[in-house]
Every structure is written in C-alpha cells, then in structure tokens.
C-alpha cells in the first residue's frame, strides 16, 4: 500500500490544494491530509473548521483521509505509516523552501517528498489571498474545492 501525507496549514484548503491531492491519487493508494498545528501561527479558521472543509471536499473519496497533527511532519508520516510526503509547487519562490524542508525530512527519516507542479489555472490561488478577500467581505467560492461551503 503506497500511502502519502499531504501536510499543510490549509487556512483555508483551496482548489489548488484539492487539485494536488486529486492528481496524487494517480500515484498513491491513499493520501492522508494533515493539518499541522503551529501554535505560533495565528490562523483565520480554527482547526475543526479547516478539517470540516477538507472532509466536505473529499466526502465521496474513501482513499483520502484528513486529520490534525501536533508533531513534526516526519513523525506524523510515520504515525500513519506513510512512505511519502506530497507537496505542491506554484512558483520559484516556493522552490527553495520546499527543497530545504524536503532534504531535511529525507535525511532525518528516509521519507521522500514528491512534488507536483500546480496546474497553471490554479497558480495564483493561495490561502493568503483567500483570507485577504474574506477580510474585505468578498466571496471566495471560486478559490474553494467543488462542493465546499464555508
Ligand atoms: P504550508 O504552511 O505548509 O506552506 P499551505 O497550506 O500553505 O501550507 O500549503 C500546503 C501545500 O500546498 C504546499 O506544498 C504548497 O506549496 C501547496 N499549495 C498551496 N497553494 C497551492 C496551489 N494553488 N496549487 C498547488 N499547490 C499549492
């Protein structure tokens, strides 16, 4: 069984994240989406709302699970018996960060990071912009996965 985790903050989970997971299902039997809790990072959506959004998005997909984790990402991967970490890459700005963290995770645990390039239609989508739009009272349904209601 090939299992990957897809870790992130997901504040909120967007259609860009959704697309990475959907494409990841062609490579992995199961994907566990992990909402990483970092108490130093203030979020707009609380953990249970972030989990609810992800569960709505994948309600019809038994190969995708979602959970909250408080540990190091590699320890979370081991705890769910995942051999891979899935991540998405939008721009060169994401690249150095992903490489550093991916190298560190592999050296510490042997767990490989698999990176998918974002679909160009979603390259501009980010949780940060979604939160900004919400703060100005704008509708962000175009940023959300299908079948998700906030
Ligand atoms: P983190 O705080 O770990 O960066 P995020 O929730 O911002 O968590 O992102 C989780 C993963 O999803 C990261 O690999 C990020 O690069 C990727 N990602 C974010 N937005 C998009 C998008 N629009 N398309 C593809 N991947 C994305």
Automatic annotation (TrEMBL):
It catalyses: (R)-4'-phosphopantetheine + ATP + H(+) = 3'-dephospho-CoA + diphosphate. Gene3D superfamilies: HUPs. It is an enzyme of class 2 (transferase). Keywords: ATP-binding, Coenzyme A biosynthesis, Cytoplasm, Magnesium, Nucleotide-binding, Nucleotidyltransferase, Transferase. GO terms for molecular function: ATP binding; pantetheine-phosphate adenylyltransferase activity. InterPro entries: Cyt_trans-like, PPAT, Rossmann-like_a/b/a_fold. NCBIfam families: coaD_prev_kdtB, cyt_tran_rel. One of its GO terms (biological process) is coenzyme A biosynthetic process. Its EC number is 2.7.7.3. Residues 5-131 form the Cytidyltransferase-like domain. It comes from bioreactor metagenome. This is Phosphopantetheine adenylyltransferase. It holds the Pfam family CTP_transf_like.
